[in-house]
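Hello forum,

I keep getting stuck at the same step: I have a sequence, I want structure tokens, and every attempt I make locally crashes halfway through. Rather than fight my setup again tonight, could one of you with a working pipeline run this one for me? It's a single chain of 316 residues.
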Amino acid sequence: MTYSFRPSRDESVNKTVLIALAGTTGAGKTESAMRIARGIVGPNGKFVIIDTENRRALNKAKRYEFDHLDFKAPYSPDNFKGAIDAAEKEEYGAIVVDNFSHEWFGEGGCSDMQEEALERLSKGDMGKAERLTALAWKAPKQSHKKLIYRILQCSIPIIFCLRAEPKIRFTKDATGKTQVVDAGWQPICEKMFGYEMLAYVLLMPDNPGVPVHLKKLEPELEAIFPLGKQIDESVGKGLAEWAAGGAKKEPPKEEFKPPVAQPKNDDFLNAMGREKARLGDTRFYAVLGDQGFESLDEIPDRPAQIKVYKAMVSEK
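Reply #2:
Ran it on my machine without issues. Output:
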């Protein structure tokens, strides 16, 4: 191995651009990702969409020119790695992965890999299954870790689209009584994935494409991703300039404070927390999907809540 030391201000090597856009259906993830990619590559450059959503990205082909990969299950880390390898070999100017949540919870993704390993190790013995749960995660997590290492070494900017859902957590107060606490919106992916991103952006459907939350950024990036401002091609252009060592921009003077989202009915969230713990994540989201919803945030009213709850409790 050759070791090459450079001064800290040497800008001759492009910096890594990894962006994650998370949100529910209708939050503007795909649209925003394409606008960022177009800004990165410029009006005549080429970018590619790695599409896990049954060719849904092609709905935007009339407004955005891009190359397309119809990426099918199994959504294993190795298959995502292969798709990124192929895109880098083709020398695209940017990659959009829509939707990367499949790598964790999709068909053939890490959660499926763990369940298959657990079934193989325990041979249906529930007692063994409890003891071997951690061991069954070993291979999926190693595969995921190799994918992350590959992503971090990619020479091409990558924009990941992720589904997000509202989370709750259970804590005990000073008296020892269990309390339900709002944990905010969380992306559906491996829990450490966001730490590898240059920017993690949360979008909401009531104002599509407008960031309401950002991972703490480097100061020169704050002006590129201002809260409350629509994501457009200028974001991609700014990221490309930053990666190539362009001039720094001053961050905005005033801090934007996003509105606080109204939580769902507490009784319903408490019930869903219990059902999720009982069924497990994979089965919980499968039942939710059977009722036509991707996340709890999509459930609009009390009748729909009752319908979902009845479906959950009917699961054996």
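The CA atoms of residues 79 and 268 lie 38 Å apart. If your local run keeps crashing, start a new thread with the error log.
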